[in-house]
Amino acid sequence: MKIKPYIPNDNSLAYSVGVTLDRFIKKKQDDFPFASGELSQLLRDIALAAKIVNRETNRAGLANIGGAFGQTNVQGEEQQKLDVIANIRFTRALTKGGEVCAIVSEEDDEVIDLQNNSGKYVVAIDPLDGSSNIDVNISIGTIFSIYRRVTPVGSPIQLDDIMQPGRQQVAAGYVLYGSSTMLVYTTGCGVNGFTYEQSLGEFFLSHPDMKAPSSGNIYSINEGISNSFSEGLAKYIAHCKSKNYSARYIGSLVADFHRNLLKGGIYIYPETKKNPSGKLRLLYEANALAYIAEQAGAEANDGVQRILDIQPTSLHQRTPLYIGSKVMVNEALEFISKKSIIHENQ
User: Fold this and answer.
1) Could you tell me where this protein is found in the cell (predicted)?
2) Which CATH architecture has domain 21-207?
C-alpha cells in the first residue's frame, strides 16, 4: 500500500477559509505558561457572548428589543434594552466559564462577585458601547479588560483585585458590531483582529499583527461641546482644520477608535467645565483601548499622563482621553500643555 503525503494545492477549487479564533488562541497559548489554559478559555467565553450579542443586535428591529429600557445606569445614562441584554449575556458567559471571580460592568453600580474564589481573573467590561446608536443602525461595540487577581486564589475577592492600573492588564479587546462584526484583542504580544463569518458561526483571523499608522489626517471629537474646550485644545482643533484634516465622529467609541487604528488619526474626549474629570470610564473603556493602542504602536494619554499608569480610585472613575497615532497625540498634548484654561460657556 502506498502512502501519499498531503501537499496543499493552491489551485484547489476549495479556497482556504483561514485561521479560526479558537485555533489561533490555542496556538498562542504557549505565550502564557502560567495560565494553564484559563485565559484561553476566558477569551473563548467572551467570543461566544459576542456571537450572541451580534445575533441580538442584528434582529433588534424585528424583535422589539431596540429603544430605551426605562431605567438609568450608575452613570445617570438612560439604559437601552440591548444594554441590559448584552450585560446579561456577557455576565452569564463569564459566570459559566468558571475562570472569572469578579466582573466590573458599566451597567452595574457595584462589583459583581461571582462567588467563584477559585477564579484567577477579573473582567472589566462595557457590554454595549454606543447603544444609543442602535435605533439608527450605526456601529456599536463591546469593550473588555482582563486582569489577573492579586490576592491568593481560593480567598474572597478584595478591592485590590479590582483597582489595578491598566498596565497590569493581561488581555484587552473590543468587539465591533458594524457592516461586519470584528473581535480585536491583545494579550500583550501584538494586536490581532478577527471577522465573524455568520454562515459558519466562527471568527476568522482577518487582520493579523495590526499596526497603527504613526500619523494620520483624521481627528475625532464632539465639536458640539467646543465652547467648553480648553484654549490649548481649541487651538489644536484649529490647527487640524488648517491642515485640512478630516473630522470624523460617530459617537460610538469603539467605531471611532477602530477607524483611527486602521487609518491613522486621533480620538479626543477632553475634560470640560461640565465634566472636569472627563466623561469616559477608566476601568472598562480607556484602559482597554489604551492597552490595544500601545500594542499597535499608538499612544493614549489623559492630557497629563499615560492612561495605563493611572491608579484607579473608584469603580466608575472617569478620565479625559487622547488616543491614536503617536505623532498626532503628542502634537495635541503640546498644544494643551501650553494652555489649560477651560472656557466658561457650556
Assistant:
1) Cytoplasm
2) 2-Layer Sandwich (3.30)
